[in-house]
Write a structure and sequence with these properties.
This is Excinuclease ABC subunit B. It is found in: Membrane. A hairpin with a 3-residue loop joins strand 1 and strand 2. Helices cover about 75% and strands about 5% of the residues. It has one domain. The radius of gyration is 21 Å and the shape is globular. With about 270 residues, the chain is an all-alpha fold.
């Protein structure tokens, strides 16, 4: 595993564009810190400081930071599809296979890289969240601090699943731009199917089916936290109540898609005449 990971990291770090994108991918989550110090002047009457509103209290901070950080995943998605595009355009894929790397090892090297960067990103978000929480949170009991840290696990699985999808599209079309376009096409396709199911049955049933779609399943791992924040400020408003928790079955769905995307990537490579 480490040999394959080291091989892939060497390729990425020798590519100037990849190095820049990786750097940006790891720097952007730190903007969550800026969010915590954001001050909004309300028409000159008073200043609203997010950090003082309690939104960075434990355990809600795990939900808030992982949701915002997951919005930056598209930068590393470019790196993932570029890994495949460069292999074909630079003929390094064929050379690797000639040098003794099996097709299975080639796909695994990409997947190990995805897992590695997802893990690094998760650790960064954990440290950022912990620092912000310890500074702003009204609660510092250990039992409260570690509550809902399963959002970090959901964040990790979400990244691995999304980047595995990018890996599959990269293998499918061989070009970075087209692979990213396929993500948009898949997003549109999911909503078209959702609309057709709603038309044939009802919205509630269609929503249940939609939650099994790859992009929707990844999104559902970490639901938007804004409604939850509103719930904490207006607990008497029952219409704000919604299920924001991380569920095990949602993780299983995304892990299932992840395994399928990696397997299909391998099948594509195995059947392709290089």
């Amino acid at each position: 595993m480490f040999r394959l990971l080291n091989l892939e990291l060497q390729k990425l770090l020798l590519n100037r564009t990849s190095k820049i994108l990786i750097f940006v991918s790891f720097i952007l989550p730190f903007f969550v810190i800026l969010l915590s110090s954001l001050k909004i002047n309300v028409f000159g009457f008073f200043t609203l400081e997010l950090g003082e509103l309690g939104v960075f209290n434990f355990p809600i901070i795990w939900h808030l930071t992982t949701f915002f950080a997951s919005q930056f995943k598209f930068f590393f998605a470019i790196v993932v599809v570029s890994m495949i595009g460069n292999e074909y355009s630079n003929k390094t894929l064929k050379q690797n296979l000639i040098d003794g790397l099996s097709k299975k090892e080639f796909i695994l090297s990409k997947f190990y890289t995805i897992v590695f960067f997802s893990l690094v990103s998760t650790v960064l978000i954990a440290l950022i969240s912990l620092c912000i929480g310890l500074y702003y949170s009204s609660y510092n009991e250990f039992s409260i601090i570690v509550q809902q840290t399963n959002f970090l696990l959901a964040y990790f699985i979400k990244l691995v699943g999304f980047f595995s999808l990018c890996l599959f599209f990269g293998m499918l079309v061989k070009r970075s731009a087209f692979a990213l376009a396929f993500l948009f096409i898949l997003y549109i396709l999911e909503w078209i199917i959702f609309g057709l199911i709603t038309w044939q049955s009802d919205h509630h049933f269609a929503e249940k089916i939609q939650n099994f779609f790859p992009l929707k399943a990844m999104y559902k791992l970490i639901d938007q936290p804004f409604q939850r924040i509103a719930m904490s400020k207006f607990p008497e408003k029952s219409e704000l109540v919604y299920d924001y928790a991380v569920h095990g079955y949602e993780m299983v769905i995304v892990l299932g898609w992840t395994a399928l995307f990696v397997f299909l990537s391998y099948r594509l490579l195995k059947q392709r005449d290089l």
